[in-house]
Every structure is written in structure tokens, then in C-alpha cells.
């Protein structure tokens, strides 16, 4: 076989796509512009660098659609899940990782693979020939973004996303903060104490909201507008939607008991999650922000326990690029106008590390099959991966298309299963059982040869 698969972008989707195709015996070239051309959010030239949270979210494969997607990717021999499992950190029921060790491990695995080579440099035009996957993620370069926009006829491919700050653990006042996962979730003591909690009473919360609303924010350039994905809103934007919004979102006080004052119920709680294996860094959960740096330090040090916090990284704002995939991509994730080009990852309109990697896994397998002269059948829609790809390639309303996390709302209904909140546990278990059976059958019928 002489035909190569070219992948633009070495993030979650590009890395997973390369792994799947290479393990099928296809020669793969990953084109990654970093470190020659940097971005606002990235700090290294490693593949699969995590620029926002260090969490792959819930690992519950029976009651959570994200956890089910984890299961499907593991069953398919996914690189991202394999390296996440190897470098996981305590996080209650979530799958969180040491971001540096994780990225280094993904990079090493791909660089050591006999069928993969990585080429540094930016590609700013759509390729005319060959087999390609574009997996450039939310930070697609200006040149390539313009080329995609020109080809697709879209006036706007971007909205704005924000990253949360990271705090040095030894600067947190543990006489005020405590370690506990919400509802003590987790099978081990380490999991049950995976989050660091900072409580607020009503007056402290109200003062915090006032400061958020008054803080200096990052200004947009002329002609830019901000359209945020609702699953990753800056905290000040959430506060603008109502003073109680944060108390019912990232600062909800439920499922927690303050051991310093067990008889006092907190009005709000800020949670921090461990960000590295050493436990020296913690990220503030849900606190993505577009406040200016000086304002961030002032506002975040109003949080009890963080009065003297030192910040390893402050939050920031960055551009996110995605296609109107329902109108532009076919059910094999190919660009309708140029079928030799596939798209994968966040640029297709999925949101999150897990969803991005899953779309990379699928694109890699589909592209490998093309090169080998076969066509894989459509994924079963009853799987998490099938439900997600069906949504972005035709199931969503094109006029209102926005980035989407995987969720059970994308799954086809089950007959004879009780609806509503009371039937949710049985319904979710039925969804995941059905998905696992369908995914296993599809994989067994279309298995790729594995290369260690």
C-alpha cells in the first residue's frame, strides 16, 4: 500500500484518527503546526495537549452518555482512553488525568508507531488530492479557516471559548477548604476526596457576584462578536444571566459537608480539581473566564481559602472554529464538495475532549477503509458514537446548529421504558446496554488489525 493518510492537526481527534488508521496498516502523516506556529492556549508542541480542563468527565458507562463513549472507545482500542487510564488522577466518578504526562504519552506512542510520522508546519490551503482528515480543533489557523470558509461559503466559522485558571495547591488555606467529592462519590477514599472545596456564605457570594459583574473583561477586536457554547460559558457571562445562576451551576453547594463547620450549610461552594499527579496544581472547576488578568487575581482571591492563592495559569479567551456539519458533511464525515477530505473533532461541531477523540476514532477508521478499498457501513445509531455522528451529519437542525456534547437526548427512544425523572436510572441503563451490544457487534464485524 502506497497511499498515505494525511491528518491536519495533532489534537485529541487527530491523534486518535492517526492511531486507528495506523493500526489498520495505513501509513499516516500528522501535520501539526505547533511548535513552529503557536496558539494562545497551547503551551507545548506535544500532541493531544489539554488546553482547558484536565477531565474527560464522567467514567460511568451505565448511567452517563460520556462514560458510555469512554467504554466504546476503550472497546475499539482507543489511544486517548488508554493513555488517560494510564495517567488518571482521583476525581470522584470522573476520569481526570495529569495533563502533561498524558500528552507526553500520546506523543511518544504515535512517534514510536512504525506507520506514523509527524511533520511540523502549518497547512493553510485545502488539499486538492490524496486522502485527508482535517482535525484542527477550536484553534484552526487563520489561513486554513479562511480556505474552509471560502470552500463552504460560510461567513462565520467561529465562536469564543474560555479556559479556567490553575492554582498552586500549597497556596490554598486548608483551614477553610476541605477535600470531598460531591455526595462522597467514588469507590476509594482517594476518589471520595478528589475535590477541594471552598465554601461561601450568602454575603460572601453576593460580594463575589458584584465583583464578577464589575470586573474588567477582555475586549473583542472590531468586527468580532462572542457566541458562547452554553456548556462552557465564562463565569461572568453566567452571572450576567442571573445572580443565582452560579449557585445552580459550578458553585452549587449540594452533596458537601464542611468538616470545619459541619452544622453550617454553605450558600455556595467553589470546587477545585487536581490537575497533575503530584497534586501540586488544582484547576477551578467551571471557572472559565474572559476577565483581564489583574481582575482575575482580585476576584478569585475573594474566595474563602484562596485569599493568598498563587496562580500557575490564569484564565483566558480563545477562538473556537466549527462547521455547520449537517449541511456540509455526508454520513461518512466527508466534505460533500471535496469527498477526499474528512473532518473530525471539535471542528465538526462536537464539544469536549471525549467527543472530539471519538470523532477522530471514527474518521480514522473510515479513511483507512477508503484507502484499503472497502467501505464501512454506517455506525449503529443506538451507540453513543453513532448517535453523536448522526446528530452532526444530519440529525441536528442546520439553522440553529451549535456544538453538542454527547447526551442521552441524542439516542433513539426505547419502547416499554418509563419516561420522566423517576424512570431515568432504568432508562439510562437500557440505553447503555443496547449501545454496548450494538457497538460490540459492529466492531466484531469490522475489526481492524492491531499493532502494538
Automatic annotation (TrEMBL):
<protein>
    <recommendedName>
        <fullName>Methylenetetrahydrofolate--tRNA-(uracil-5-)-methyltransferase TrmFO</fullName>
        <ecNumber>2.1.1.74</ecNumber>
    </recommendedName>
</protein>
<keyword id="KW-0963">Cytoplasm</keyword>
<keyword id="KW-0808">Transferase</keyword>
<dbReference type="InterPro" id="IPR036188">
    <property type="entry name" value="FAD/NAD-bd_sf"/>
</dbReference>
<dbReference type="GO" id="GO:0002098">
    <property type="term" value="P:tRNA wobble uridine modification"/>
</dbReference>
<comment type="function">
    <text>Catalyzes the folate-dependent formation of 5-methyl-uridine at position 54 (M-5-U54) in all tRNAs.</text>
</comment>
<feature type="domain" description="MnmG N-terminal">
    <location>
        <begin position="5"/>
        <end position="374"/>
    </location>
</feature>
<keyword id="KW-0274">FAD</keyword>
<dbReference type="GO" id="GO:0050660">
    <property type="term" value="F:flavin adenine dinucleotide binding"/>
</dbReference>
<dbReference type="InterPro" id="IPR002218">
    <property type="entry name" value="MnmG-rel"/>
</dbReference>
<dbReference type="InterPro" id="IPR040131">
    <property type="entry name" value="MnmG_N"/>
</dbReference>
<dbReference type="Pfam" id="PF01134">
    <property type="entry name" value="GIDA"/>
</dbReference>
<keyword id="KW-0489">Methyltransferase</keyword>
<keyword id="KW-0819">tRNA processing</keyword>
<dbReference type="InterPro" id="IPR004417">
    <property type="entry name" value="TrmFO"/>
</dbReference>
<dbReference type="GO" id="GO:0047151">
    <property type="term" value="F:tRNA (uracil(54)-C5)-methyltransferase activity, 5,10-methylenetetrahydrofolate-dependent"/>
</dbReference>
<dbReference type="GO" id="GO:0005829">
    <property type="term" value="C:cytosol"/>
</dbReference>
<feature type="binding site">
    <location>
        <begin position="9"/>
        <end position="14"/>
    </location>
    <ligand>
        <name>FAD</name>
    </ligand>
</feature>
<comment type="similarity">
    <text>Belongs to the MnmG family. TrmFO subfamily.</text>
</comment>
<keyword id="KW-0285">Flavoprotein</keyword>
<dbReference type="GO" id="GO:0030488">
    <property type="term" value="P:tRNA methylation"/>
</dbReference>
<keyword id="KW-0521">NADP</keyword>
<keyword id="KW-0520">NAD</keyword>
Amino acid at each position: 500500500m502506497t497511499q498515505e493518510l494525511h491528518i491536519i492537526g495533532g489534537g485529541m481527534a487527530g491523534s486518535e484518527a492517526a492511531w486507528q488508521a495506523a493500526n489498520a496498516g495505513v501509513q499516516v502523516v500528522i501535520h501539526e503546526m505547533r511548535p513552529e506556529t503557536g496558539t494562545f492556549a497551547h503551551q507545548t508542541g506535544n500532541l493531544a495537549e489539554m488546553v482547558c480542563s484536565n477531565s474527560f468527565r464522567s467514567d460511568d458507562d451505565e448511567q452517563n452518555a460520556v462514560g458510555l463513549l469512554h467504554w466504546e472507545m476503550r472497546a475499539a482500542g482507543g489511544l486517548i482512553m488508554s493513555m488517560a487510564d494510564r495517567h488518571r488522577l482521583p476525581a470522584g466518578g470522573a476520569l481526570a488525568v495529569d495533563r502533561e504526562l498524558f500528552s507526553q504519552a500520546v506523543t511518544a506512542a504515535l512517534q514510536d508507531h512504525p506507520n506514523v510520522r509527524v511533520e511540523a508546519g502549518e497547512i493553510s490551503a485545502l488539499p486538492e488530492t490524496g486522502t485527508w482528515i482535517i482535525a484542527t480543533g477550536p484553534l484552526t489557523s487563520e489561513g486554513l479557516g479562511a480556505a474552509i470558509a471560502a470552500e463552504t461559503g460560510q461567513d462565520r466559522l467561529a465562536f469564543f471559548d474560555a479556559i479556567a485558571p490553575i492554582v498552586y495547591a500549597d497556596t490554598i488555606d486548608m483551614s477553610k477548604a476541605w477535600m470531598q467529592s460531591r455526595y462522597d462519590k467514588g469507590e476509594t477514599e482517594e476518589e471520595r476526596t478528589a475535590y477541594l472545596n471552598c465554601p461561601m456564605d450568602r454575603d460572601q457570594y453576593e460580594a463575589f457576584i458584584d465583583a464578577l459583574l464589575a470586573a474588567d473583561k477582555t475586549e473583542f477586536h472590531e468586527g468580532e462578536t462572542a457566541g458562547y457554547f452554553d456548556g462552557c460559558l465564562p463565569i461572568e457571562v453566567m452571572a450576567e444571566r442571573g445572580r443565582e445562576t452560579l449557585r445552580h451551576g459550578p458553585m452549587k453547594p449540594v452533596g458537601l459537608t464542611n468538616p470545619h463547620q459541619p452544622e453550617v450549610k454553605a450558600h455556595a461552594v467553589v470546587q477545585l480539581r487536581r490537575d497533575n499527579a503530584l497534586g501540586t496544581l488544582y484547576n477551578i472547576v467551571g471557572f472559565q473566564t474572559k476577565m483581564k488578568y489583574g481582575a482575575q487575581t482580585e476576584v478569585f482571591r475573594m474566595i474563602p481559602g484562596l485569599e493568598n492563592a498563587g496562580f500557575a495559569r490564569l484564565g483566558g479567551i480563545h477562538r473556537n472554529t466549527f462547521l455547520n456539519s449537517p449541511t456540509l458533511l455526508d454520513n461518512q464525515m466527508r466534505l460533500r464538495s471535496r469527498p477526499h477530505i474528512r473532518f473530525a473533532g471539535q471542528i465538526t461541531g462536537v464539544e469536549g475532549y471525549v467527543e472530539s477523540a471519538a470523532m477522530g476514532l471514527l474518521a480514522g477508521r473510515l479513511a483507512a477503509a477508503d484507502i484499503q478499498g472497502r467501505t464501512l457501513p454506517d455506525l449503529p445509531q443506538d451507540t453513543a458514537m453513532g448517535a453523536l455522528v448522526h446528530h452532526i451529519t444530519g440529525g441536528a437542525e442546520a439553522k440553529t446548529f451549535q456544538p453538542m456534547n454527547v447526551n442521552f437526548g441524542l439516542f433513539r427512544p426505547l419502547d416499554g421504558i418509563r419516561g420522566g425523572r423517576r424512570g431515568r436510572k432504568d432508562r439510562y441503563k437500557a440505553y447503555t446496554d443496547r449501545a454496548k451490544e450494538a457497538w460490540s457487534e459492529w466492531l466484531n464485524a469490522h475489526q481492524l488489525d492491531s499493532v502494538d
